[in-house]
Specification:
The protein has about 900 residues and is of the alpha/beta class. About 40% of the residues lie in helices and about 15% in strands.
Length: about 900
């Protein structure tokens, strides 16, 4: 019997075997990896191209490297249930101490002519790293580990024997390394190591699932077990939902969107423009509500039909927009794939709170109506649904853009995300909506997508020209095609970047696309409130978008006091999740596309930035605090958004609350009116340019004025017009943006360096957004006897639905409970929370001063006691911070 059969790999298995032999588990993972490559043509082709290997050689090599992933478990320490150092590090040391030499001694024919031992190690190092660091994290390798100590003679012999037999079984004597220059081979192996590492992680996860691979503890020939492992792997890969089926045979606009009467010009161009083989970057610029999403989906589906992608992922700016898009996609799914059994995944931190997603993962499949009227199943394989890290492996994914950006961060399991995206066409909506840190992450993602052969589609209504150039340049640099200058400023516009060159395609406006919006400027909040009340009293609906939660809360209270006969609703992010989801649904019902005049009449909504993009709502009149031009235009997109013959006012009016425009403003020109908003939007020079541009107009015509308005604020020449007293704000904001971009560069992977090259700079989690530090706060009701979640009821997610995010400077930690009964209740509640380390549990008692209000105590960043109040109508009210 071979010595390696005495070593265990998995314990606590099912049926009669408590342990699974290490050799078998290694072959299980190899069988999954081989099955993935054999069944996934696109992944196989792209990985072979990156590695510069023939596909048959690639399959042999990847199967073998995957079989070697757990070699560290042959160590005496692991077999003795001592798990430090980790077996991942021990596998790497085993390669360095013995296995490279073993290849030269036993398989010299693998080495191309002219290669020496050093060449072999340098070329294979990225792939060995991918195999050894198969837990998704590149670990610190400082300090010396003795391979001989952890692999005494008996253990070393077993590891070497398995290595030899696995090589004979999976690779054989035939050469497989690329002929020619070892430096070119090293470069290719570095680039391909990222996808290889993802394959090995996915293969190991699937092979470790004893629902797929039953534990076996009796010895048999490796070749005999290999046949068994392949049979189980084929079933496991199928059940895991990893291989997308063929796309639907018809991918026309009318087949995808049978409910839309006719495509808009931008949609027409998306359906007809020439797409050459190879990676592509496509930017679609058109006004809000003009059908950019449908245009992007048409382009994505064309790439699916052409075999340029197997799956798609759509990244949205917020969880609310992701939830809304997920609902739309469940209707679209039956039209995308011929088999109708592909998985659709929602990917963000609160996905389990989405009823629709829960139904397709935890209960029977949802039934949707396909285009021919037959029932079609919408589903999600449970293996894909249980972890956001695997979500991008699904045939169709929807989520926040963070899920895609995490693929290029040096953090745990980024390789799984990158593996999924390499097969996908990525659609990013509202690409203008991020800060300098996220913009730089996006540029890195664009480059990685180009290098792995994938495509991206970026959608925006208000994309500044200089940012468009940066995005295009990132893609061209990765392709190695050199910069092709952008020459057109038409609007709407589609920009197509591919190896064959750059094309800029003007789309023109469709009939009825033009909207004229009247502009009013005011420096008086009282005038804005009076205008809102007047519209509501005339039977219309109005909205005021404010720049901070505090300002929104004050405006809501002021309107309610001034017009108690009207219904005033407040919407912002500082609401418990359950309250926020309920309010989102109510707002869409009252002000969405299908709302009726009776639903809308006499109502005012006060909101923060969450209303800019999150909700498909429509108002008769709008007030906005002065904000950057692109955000003002986004907000205007919620004004007369849908055709309504019964509007009380036919004229769309946008009123902008702004400080009086001055040619030589003081440094505190903006801060004096918006003391908190001044720290939200720090580029006060651009705010002044926005106020100046809007103040010079009585009307704006959309989409015709989009380009002029945006470039008048963000172009390089426009910066020269900023008044001297506001330049300090600009300089500080620019410096902060440059620093954020540098941090993003440090946090992102270096694709050309290969997997594992940066060692211990990796982290379990790396932020996809910098922004303000926030605390996760869970609200609880305390009545003196019982502590209950704010979102009380039988819901499994009651505590999560009671959660919100708040500025960490204001709510930093829990206050000591003054009641021993409350202290005991808090401890009992925390005992049932697996993530209690990361949340603040805030007990609330009824506020005698308010019928629906509750109040509680916390500590701020200076550990000072603070009293906070919460109500469903106002959300969390917190004292200002001087931190």
């Amino acid at each position: 019997m071979k010595p390696y059969f005495d070593y265990w790999g998995k314990s606590g298995g099912s049926e009669n075997d408590s342990q699974h032999k290490l050799a078998y588990h290694c072959l299980d993972a190899a069988a999954v990896a081989q099955t993935l490559l054999l069944q996934d043509r696109l992944l196989r082709t792209r990985l072979a191209s990156l590695a510069e290997l023939e596909e048959s050689d690639l399959i042999r090599a990847v199967s073998f490297l995957c079989a070697c992933h757990d070699l560290g478990k042959f160590s005496a320490s692991f077999q003795g249930f001592v798990f430090q150092p980790r077996h991942t590090r021990l596998a790497l040391e085993l390669w360095r101490f013995s296995l490279f030499n073993q290849i030269q001694e036993q398989w010299p024919q693998w080495l191309p002519q002219g290669w020496d031992e050093f060449d072999l190690q340098e070329v294979l190092a990225p792939w060995v790293n991918a195999s050894a660091w198969h837990h998704g994290l590149v670990e610190e390798t400082t300090g010396t580990i003795s391979a001989q100590r952890h692999f005494p003679a008996e253990n070393m012999a077993a590891a070497q024997a398995f290595f030899q037999d696995a090589a004979a079984l999976l690779v054989g004597p035939e050469p497989w390394l690329p002929e020619g220059d070892p430096f070119q081979a090293e470069k290719a192996f570095r680039r391909s190591s990222w996808l290889l590492s993802g394959i090995i992680v996915a293969a190991d996860w699937i092979a470790s699932n004893d629902s797929f691979f039953k534990h076996l503890n009796r010895p048999m020939e490796l070749s005999q077990y290999w046949d068994l492992a392949l049979d189980q792997a084929r079933e496991a890969v199928d059940l895991a939902g990893l291989i997308p089926g063929p796309p639907s045979g018809e991918m026309t606009f009318s087949s995808l969107f049978p409910g839309l009467e006719r495509p808009t010009p931008v949609q027409d161009n998306a359906a007809s423009m020439e797409l050459c083989p190879g990676p592509k970057l496509i930017l679609v610029e058109d006004s809000t509500g003009a059908g950019k999403t449908e245009a992007g989906l048409v382009l994505a589906c064309r790439l699916l039909a052409q075999g340029e992608a197997e799956s798609l992922f759509m990244g949205l700016s917020t969880m609310a927009t992701a939830n809304a898009m997920f609902g739309r996609f469940t209707e679209l799914m039956p039209r995308l794939f011929a088999g109708g059994e592909e998985s659709i995944v929602l990917a963000h931190s609160a996905k389990r709170m989405n009823d629709r997603f829960r139904r397709i993962t935890e209960g029977p499949s949802m039934t949707s109506s396909s285009q021919d009227g037959e029932a079609a199943e919408v589903q999600c394989a449970s293996w894909l649904a249980d972890n956001n890290k695997k979500s991008l492996l699904a045939p169709v994914g929807m989520g926040t853009i963070d899920q895609a950006l995490a693929a290029v961060l040096a953090q745990k399991h980024q390789n799984l995300r990158l593996l999924g995206l390499s097969r996908s066409v990525i659609i990013v909506d509202e690409v203008h909506a991020y800060d300098a840190y996220m913009d730089r992450e996006l540029e890195h993602l664009i480059g990685c997508q180009a290098l792995t052969g994938g495509s991206m589609i970026l959608l925006s209504a208000t994309l500044p020209g200089n940012f468009r150039k940066r995005l295009v340049s990132s893609f061209q640099k990765a392709l190695g095609t050199g910069d092709s200058p952008l020459s057109r400023d038409d609007y709407p516009l589609i920009t197509l970047v591919q190896k064959e060159g750059l094309a800029e395609i003007s789309s023109g406006h469709g009939p009825g696309a033009e909207r004229t919006i009247s502009l009013d400027m005011t420096a008086q909040a009282e005038e804005a409130m009076a205008a809102l009340i007047q519209v509501a009293e005339e039977g219309g609906c109005a909205c005021w978008i404010r720049n901070t939660v505090k300002d929104a809360q004050e405006a809501c209270l002021g309107l309610a006091e001034a017009a108690p006969q009207l219904e005033v609703t407040l919407f912002h992010a500082r609401l418990a999740l359950g309250d926020r989801l309920a309010l989102e649904s109510d707002l869409v019902a009252r002000f969405g596309k299908h709302s009726q005049a009776k639903d809308r009449a006499g109502r005012i909504v006060v909101a923060t930035q969450v209303a800019e993009q999150s909700l498909d709502v429509d108002f008769d009149f709008m007030v906005t605090d002065l904000a950057p031009m692109d955000l003002v235009l986004q907000r205007a997109g919620r004004l007369h958004r849908h055709y309504r013959p019964d509007r009380p006012r036919n004229r769309a009016v946008l009123m902008v609350l702004s400080p009086h425009l001055q040619d030589r403003p003081d440094k505190d020109w903006y801060e004096s009116m918006f003391p908190e908003g001044a720290w939200v939007y720090r580029r006060h020079g651009q705010l002044w340019l926005t106020a100046k541009a809007l103040g010079e107009r009585d009307l704006i015509s959309l989409p015709g004025d989009y380009r002029e308005l945006i470039e008048g604020i963000y172009s390089d020449p426009a910066q020269d017009l900023i008044p001297e007293n506001l330049r300090q704000w600009e300089q500080e904001a620019v410096s902060k943006g440059m620093a954020a971009g540098s941090i993003a560069d440090l946090n992102t992977i270096q694709f050309d360096e290969g997997y594992g090259a940066l060692g211990g700079t990796w982290r379990d989690e790396t932020p996809t957004r910098l922004g303000q530090e926030t605390s996760r706060v869970r609200l609880a009701k305390w009545d003196g006897v019982r502590l209950r979640p704010w979102h009380d009821g039988s819901d499994t997610f009651a505590w999560r639905m009671s959660e919100l995010q708040v500025n960490r400077a204001r709510v930093h930690s829990e206050a000591e409970p003054g009641d021993s009964d409350l202290a005991q209740a808090l401890e009992q509640a925390k005992a049932h929370m697996p993530d209690t380390k990361w949340v603040i549990l805030l007990p609330l008692e009824r506020d005698p001063a308010g019928a629906e209000a509750w109040q509680g105590r916390c500590l701020d960043r200076q550990h000072r006691p603070q009293t906070v109040r919460y109500s469903p109508s106002l959300g969390l009210e917190v004292p200002p911070s001087d931190a």
